[in-house]
Each structure stands twice: as structure tokens, then as C-alpha cells.
Amino acid sequence: MTQLSAAQTGTSGPSGSAKTLYGGKGTRRITVRDIAAAKERGEKWPMLTAYDAMTASVFDEAGIPVMLVGDSAGNCHLGYETTVPVTLDEMTMLSAAVVRGTSRALIVGDLPFGSYQEGPVQALRSATRLVKEAGVGAVKLEGGERSHRQIELLVESGIPVMAHIGLTPQSVNAMGYRVQGRGEEAAQQLLRDAKAVQDAGAFAVVLELVPAELAAEVTRTLHIPTVGIGAGPGTDAQVLVWTDMLGLTGGRVPKFVKQYADLREVMSGAAKAFAEDVVGGTFPQEEHSVH
Ligand code: KIV
């Protein structure tokens, strides 16, 4: 069998430790220790959402080092209007599929609304399901100061936590979808939230829809990596919802999304071509038939 070089595999050393987060095929999964090392090196990294095994396998092969099984599955996969109705059973099923479809990426499972707000013990029970039943390597939950007790207990129990502050979509009924951290008071609150999740032991923090200058300041202040979405170029990592990034989401997408393909157009064109072939009697042909 051909041996791949460390550069080709994205690994180095006998332990197979990740050399860079992005790129190549590794001999083992990315861990939160690799994420911490990337911050020390000043390496930026990409994260994408994934909700199913096949899509996740494509991103894994492309070298995406971290995948989030986000509760954005609610709007982008399950047909809900918001993330609020998503259940822990649904997140467990989707997370397990993404874990099965991947071999290198760190898979982060989102704790859905109602699965951790009661307190640390409920958070631990819910996170334990995602770790044991789905096999995720870390969980994500929303909230800064308000969630620090939950984060502390999960981390003490050996479950790595990605925090999420700024716009927190599970609170849409209270806060709407508005830019967060504008104005001195709100900016100070965001900084307090960021420090609270770091002090509680989170290994990374998502900053959603916050002014670029503030996100850059949070990134300079923290020793854990920041993952921006609608937070400008100054964060350590960037995350996009995959259906937005690949142009599958119908209707208006947020201004901060860069669309790298138009899958909706490609899929619709292919579906129409198939339908026309069937209606016109040109599919199947001899080469598609068995005898
Ligand atoms: O659920 C999700 O996809 C998220 C990302 C937008 C960070 O929380």
C-alpha cells in the first residue's frame, strides 16, 4: 500500500497529531487539543454545518476539520420555521448520521432549545446522549454568562463545549434576528459573555451577527478560538450553514453569506431534465435496462 507523507495526510509525528486543521486526510479525528494548538499557531480554520452522512462525507473528504450538526437543521433540513421546535431525539439521530459519514472531522452536536436551559444536570443528561448515542466529540450550547454553570459541569464531566454568543437563534422569540453588541453597553455585555464561557472551560465560542470590530476585539482578548458567522474577518474560524453556502436554501439568505455554488438551480435543472425524459419516453434507454 502506498504510504502518504505527513503533508498529504495533514498529520505529523508518530502520534498522528494534526499539523494543520484544514486539508488532507488524517489518520485520526481532530480533537479539541488540535483546535487549541491552531489558535497558538494563529491558524484560521473553516467549519460547516452538516445534517446527514452523505453531505458530511463530502465535506470530510474536502478536508473541513470541524462540522457542526447545528439545530439550524430545523430550518435547513427538517422544514421548521425556526430552530425552536428541534428536539434532542432529532439532534441525536442527525448527529449519529454525520459521525457515521466522517472519519477525520471533529463533530460538534448542538443541544437544542429546552435540552439544557433547566440547569447543569439537564445539560449533562442531554449532552451525554449526544456523546454516547451519536458519538459526537463535543457539544454546542447557546448563551454566555447565563449558561456558564452548564458549561462548567459538562467540561468537568469530560465533554468539550463550544459556546455560542451574540445572536442566539433559540431566543428568537425574545431577541429577534438583530445584530448584537451594538453600543457600549451591549459591547461590554458581549465581552463579559465571552470571558464567562472561556472561564467556564469552553474550548471555542461562536460569535453570531456581531460588529466586526467587536468580534476582532473578543478574538484578541480570548485564548480560546472564536468562530464567526456574520462577525467579520477578525475571528479565528468561520462557520457557514452548508445549505446557504452551496445555494440550496430557498428565498433570501443573510448578507453575511457567501454563496459558492447554486445547488438549487443544479438540482432543479436535473429534476426537470429527468421528468422530461420520462414524459417524452427517452429514459430509460437500452443502456439503462437489464435483460
Ligand atoms: O445551528 C447552527 O447551524 C448554528 C450556526 C449558525 C453557528 O448555530
UniProtKB/TrEMBL annotation:
Q: Which SUPFAM superfamilies match?
A: Phosphoenolpyruvate/pyruvate domain
Its principal location? Answer: cytoplasm
UniProt GO MF annotations: 3-methyl-2-oxobutanoate hydroxymethyltransferase activity; magnesium ion binding
The biological pathway it contributes to is:
Cofactor biosynthesis; (R)-pantothenate biosynthesis; (R)-pantoate from 3-methyl-2-oxobutanoate: step 1/2
What processes in GO biological process is this protein linked to?
pantothenate biosynthetic process
Catalytic residues of the enzyme: 208 (proton acceptor)
Its needed co-factors are: Mg(2+)
Q: InterPro entries of this UniProt entry?
A: Pantoate_hydroxy_MeTrfase, Pyrv/PenolPyrv_kinase-like_dom, Pyrv_kinase-like_dom_sf
Annotated Mg(2+) binding lies at 71, 110, 142
Polar residues bias locations: 1-18
Q: Where is this region: Disordered?
A: 1-23
Q: Where does 3-methyl-2-oxobutanoate bind?
A: 71-72, 110, 140
**CC cofactor note:** Binds 1 Mg(2+) ion per subunit.
Which GO terms of the cellular component aspect does the record hold?
Answer: cytoplasm
Q: What does this protein do, in the record's words?
A: Catalyzes the reversible reaction in which hydroxymethyl group from 5,10-methylenetetrahydrofolate is transferred onto alpha-ketoisovalerate to form ketopantoate.
Q: Kindly state the subunit structure of this protein.
A: Homodecamer; pentamer of dimers.
Protein name (database record): 3-methyl-2-oxobutanoate hydroxymethyltransferase
Q: Which organism is it from?
A: Streptomyces calvus
